[in-house]
Amino acid sequence: MLADIEPVNRESTAGIIARQLRDAIMTGALPPGTQLGETELAARFQVSRGPLREAMQRLVSEGLLRSERHRGLFVIDLEPGDVYDIYAARSAVERAAAIRVMRGGDRERVTAVLDAAVAAMAEADEQDDPAALTEADLRFHEELIEASGSKRLARMARTLLIETRMCLTALQGTYGRNAQGVDERVAEHNQIIAAIREGDEVAVLTLLEAHMEDAVQRLAPGTSLHADAVPHVPSGTPLPGAG
Amino acid sequence: MLADIEPVNRESTAGIIARQLRDAIMTGALPPGTQLGETELAARFQVSRGPLREAMQRLVSEGLLRSERHRGLFVIDLEPGDVYDIYAARSAVERAAAIRVMRGGDRERVTAVLDAAVAAMAEADEQDDPAALTEADLRFHEELIEASGSKRLARMARTLLIETRMCLTALQGTYGRNAQGVDERVAEHNQIIAAIREGDEVAVLTLLEAHMEDAVQRLAPGTSLHADAVPHVPSGTPLPGAG
DNA sequence: ATTCCTCGGATTGTTGACAATCATACGACT
DNA sequence: AGTCGTATGATTGTCAACAATCCGAGGAAT
Q1: Is B46 exposed, middle or buried (0-12, 13-18, 19+ CB in 10 A)?
Q2: Tens of pLDDT along chain A (243 residues)?
Q3: Which of A175, A242, B5, B62 is deepest in the core (most CB within 10 A)?
Q4: By CB neighbour count within 10 A (0-12 exposed, 13-18 middle, 19+ buried), where does B52 fall?
Q5: Residue B65 in 3-state DSSP?
Q6: Alpha helical stretches, state H, B107-200
Q7: In contact, A100 and A148? CB cutoff 8 Å
Q8: Is strand C in 7 Å reach of the CB of A235?
Q9: Does the CB of B69 fall within 7 Å of any strand C atom?
Q10: Which residues of chain B have pLDDT under 50?
Q11: Interatomic separation, CA of residue B12 and C1' of nucleotide C29, rounded (Å)
């Protein structure tokens, strides 16, 4: 059995660094608005500035970093309108993923994986671990998209889920949204799983859309996915970034 | 009146080169499978290999280039399954964009812009200019997404439209799909515009989905968006790349 | 004839140094 | 006192050289 022994080195340095940077942004180690000093980061990664810059350019094209010439690279600021934008995009991507899963996907395997994610959510809730809860929540959606088998949906979703987590950490201090809606969230996820298991595509899509709508409501009350296109919150007021 | 005079330089070299590379890939100047020699390209852009490599890393993260360590960067090969993947993703993105346009978008302005694109299509058809026809077709969809005002949908669509054009140029020699379906295509676009003008969201979405489905049918007959998840065409058979 | 090994050219990966630009603090002038 | 101009330190942008790896040609051995 010499299966899956092909990956020898085969990952570029830029790719490795880019992944670590994504993690740092996602977890809040690099809060929105932070400038990424090249010298310092390069020293931390133990590489020179060249590979580091290449990695950062990847994140620029993903929209996670914003580039100002001769000034530096900064973690993007999430303005209120972005919350809507992110969830609208996610809604589109996850809908497409769900469709693909329902038509020809291995529904049994999918529901098993998703069940595990929801179980982890409940577990995290019992232990009052909001970080683990968020992680499990996002894993649910990540697995759903992974199950679609679409390279492009997966790539788009990766960035969107990072931004989602950025929103959550940016807003979790503002609103005390802790134990409040978790039962509801778990229930919504379970309903989606049930619909997948039963093969009811319309129900899956409906539940998924409602779930995304609820998520936006929880994060930015009054800002509906179904409201006017770009809900005109006063722009230029970035969400809280660093501590 | 000192409006919109802010953009002085403010675009990184990597950004400029990346844009040109995207164009080259889109137009087929860099066909699928082509290796991008750094020395040669750097000389052509009149820069050193540093900025060029940074630009190429952007395209890697967009999925337009594939990186093989110590071997080089290559334009991605489009396999049959990718045609389906691309159109499924486009369908999701454009659907979301259409929703946003229908809810709070300036429908009058949008329809005007889209009308212009369709007019360009008809014009190109009369003059037997398939390249211009494709360009106008893609412009239609690009404008629709632009009108949604969503940064993220626009970013995702940009890559998808490039890949769409890659598919078209890869297959246009194979199938003689020239004058055959253009009337149908123009008609479909016009129907979408009409539905937008009338404010009939359901009709817009239905027509859009049908339009994407037809597009796949025209490109890869037998491969439906609605068929089994990843239609199992024999993998490892890339679409024709270079001449 | 085929296989294996070795060597040389060519390309990629990485680095440190240099040039250009920006931000800030300080001082001069109105 | 306030504003402008200047100098200095720090950071980014760019480059050319060096190291590591890969690919193909050629030859030797079986």
Answers
A1: exposed
A2: 555 555 667 899 999 999 999 999 999 999 999 999 999 999 999 999 999 999 999 999 999 999 999 999 999 999 989 999 999 999 999 999 999 999 988 999 999 999 999 999 999 999 988 889 999 999 999 999 999 999 999 999 999 999 999 999 988 755 545 556 788 899 999 999 999 999 999 999 999 999 999 999 888 776 655 544 343 343 445 666 543
A3: B62
A4: buried
A5: strand
A6: 107-126, 130-148, 151-171, 182-198
A7: yes
A8: no
A9: yes
A10: 2, 176, 227-236, 242-243
A11: 39
What does DSSP say about strands B65-68 and A65-68: parallel, antiparallel, or unpaired?
Answer: unpaired
Nearest-10 Cα torsion for A143, A147, A151, A154? -20
The token pair that represents B13 in the structure block: 């070299």
CA distances, B72 to each of A147, B68, B77, B78 (Å): 30, 6, 15, 18
Q: Which two structure tokens, joined as six digits, stand for A29?
A: 């180690």
Q: Which fold does the domain A80-219 belong to in CATH? A: Four Helix Bundle (Hemerythrin (Met), subunit A) (1.20.120)
Instruction: Give the pLDDT of residue B5.
Output: 54
Q: Report the complex ipTM.
A: 0.91
Residue B66 phi/psi, 5-degree rounding, is -115, 135
Cβ proximity of A114 and A143 under 8 Å: yes
Check the CA dihedral A177-A162-B229-B100 and report its sign.
Answer: positive
- The residues spanned by each domain of chain B are 13-75, 80-219
Both tokens of A90, joined, read 């996610």
Give the residues across from B67 on adjacent strands: B73
Does any CB of chain B come closer than 8 Å to the CB of residue A206?
no
- CATH number listed for the domain at residues A13-75: 1.10.10.10
**Could you tell me the CA-to-CA distances from B199 to A193, A196, A231, B71, B217 in Å, in that order?**
34, 33, 19, 53, 28
Cα–Cα distance between A10 and B66 in angstroms, integer? 12
A152 neighbourhood in chain B, CB within 8 Å: 63, 85-86, 88-89, 160
Contacts of A111 (CB under 8 A, 6+ apart): A193, A196, A197
For residue B193, which of B182, B184, B185, B204 has the smallest C-alpha distance? B204
**Chain B from 123 to 152: CB within 8 A of any A CB:** 148-152
- Supply φ then ψ for residue A72, to 5 degrees: 135, -175
Closest partner residue to A88 among B59, B86, B100, by Cβ? B100
* Measured distance CA(A242)–CA(A220) in Å, rounded: 19
Question: A89–B153: do the CB atoms touch at under 8 Å?
Answer: yes
Residue A106 structure tokens: 């291995």
